[in-house]
Design brief:
This protein has six helices and 21 strands. The protein is α+β, with helices and mostly antiparallel strands. It has two domains: about 120 residues, lpxc deacetylase, domain 1 (Ribosomal Protein S5, domain 2), CATH 3.30.230; about 160 residues, lpxc deacetylase, domain 2 (lpxc deacetylase, domain 1). Strands 2-3-9-4-5 form a five-stranded mixed beta sheet, with helices on one face. A five-stranded mixed beta sheet has the order 12-13-20-14-15, covered by helices on one side. Strands 6-7-8 form a three-stranded antiparallel beta sheet, with no helix packed on it. Helix 1 crosses helix 2, helix 1 crosses helix 5 and helix 5 runs parallel beside helix 6. It is globular.
């Protein structure tokens, strides 16, 4: 069964603060034509340099967040939580307008973006969807951190973290990305940080907008947020959420299994480069099995078709 590209039926807007820059930003998600992909557009700069495609090869900075930029040097930071929501909602084509240099952090998770997307409504378009099918295992390492993409008949995300902090410690999670999985199991997991590192981050120009309203904050082994955790293993689930967003920078949904061990934005992006620069590691396909026609979200199980040239 062939599946089709999707966009939003309506435009929808929100306002929030950038977690690192601390600047209040207005954001609007707008419908886009087939083949657009995820396109960020800065409304506070000249129109001729406003567009920034969300692709693995437009990523320029990966310290504490994922930042993309165009050839003119115009940037948008902290895109990963929105990218994860678009991936989990199956949105292929969208214009993301911003009047500042950073996506609003909202509550530190993808849940507010899922809400916006559902309010705007996702609609099918008239061109087939392309998927990147992993054909062989590709692994990248940095120190003891590892990220791997492996061929699989289904699409799954597995992640493991190991922190010295006893409140976090070693946590693992694994999810098959089927209809509703991202929203139910991952979308509400918030970013997190340590009170002891806050001053150092601010000295680096980061976390200026961070607060208990948009992040889990730990002081030693204590969670300072009054409401506590949303999941017992919210820390590793957020790392998996980040990986979903980072992988959507491939430019199409990936069919395969991602495994991360202590991986972060930089290693996730390194993995995309390693895979997509190896033409034997992947192919493009447009077909989905009929038996999975009700599976939603940005990921589908095994596809079999001739691979057209990568756009």
């Amino acid at each position: 069964m062939m599946t089709y590209q999707k966009t939003l039926r309506n435009s929808i807007s929100c306002t929030g603060v950038g977690v690192h820059g601390g600047q209040v930003v207005n954001m609007t998600l707008k419908p886009a034509s087939v083949g657009t992909g995820v396109m960020f557009r800065r409304t506070d700069v000249a129109p001729e340099v406003a567009n920034i495609p969300a692709r693995f090869n437009t990523v320029t900075e990966l310290v504490m967040c994922t930042t993309i930029a165009n050839e003119a040097g115009v940037k948008v930071a902290t895109i990963e939580h929105l990218m994860a929501a678009l991936s989990g909602s199956g949105v292929d084509n969208v214009i993301v307008e911003l009047d500042g240099p950073e996506v609003p952090v909202m509550d530190g998770s993808s849940a507010p973006f899922i809400f916006l997307i559902e309010c705007a409504d996702v609609v099918e378009q008239d061109q087939p969807r392309q998927y990147i099918k992993i054909l062989k295992e590709v692994e990248v390492r940095e120190g003891d951190a590892v990220a791997t993409l492996t061929p699989a008949d289904n699409v799954s995300i597995s992640f493991e973290i190991d922190f010295d902090n006893k409140r976090i410690g070693q946590q693992q999670c694994r999810f098959n990305m089927r209809n509703g999985t991202f929203k139910k199991e991952l979308s509400r997991a918030r970013t997190f940080g340590f009170l002891s590192e806050l001053e150092q981050l601010k000295a680096m120009g980061l976390a200026k907008g961070g607060s208990l309203e948009n992040a889990i904050v730990l002081s030693g082994e204590d969670v300072l947020n009054e409401e506590g955790l949303r999941y017992d293993d919210e820390f590793v689930r957020h790392k998996a959420l980040d990986a979903v967003g980072d992988l959507y920078l491939a430019g199409a949904p990936i069919i395969g299994e991602f495994n991360g061990y202590r991986s972060g934005h930089a290693l996730n992006n390194k993995l995309l480069h390693a895979v997509l620069e190896d033409k034997d590691a992947w192919c493009l396909t447009t077909e989905a099995p009929l038996r999975n026609s009700q599976v939603g979200g940005a990921y589908w199980p095994e596809q079999k078709a001739a691979a057209p040239a990568m756009a």
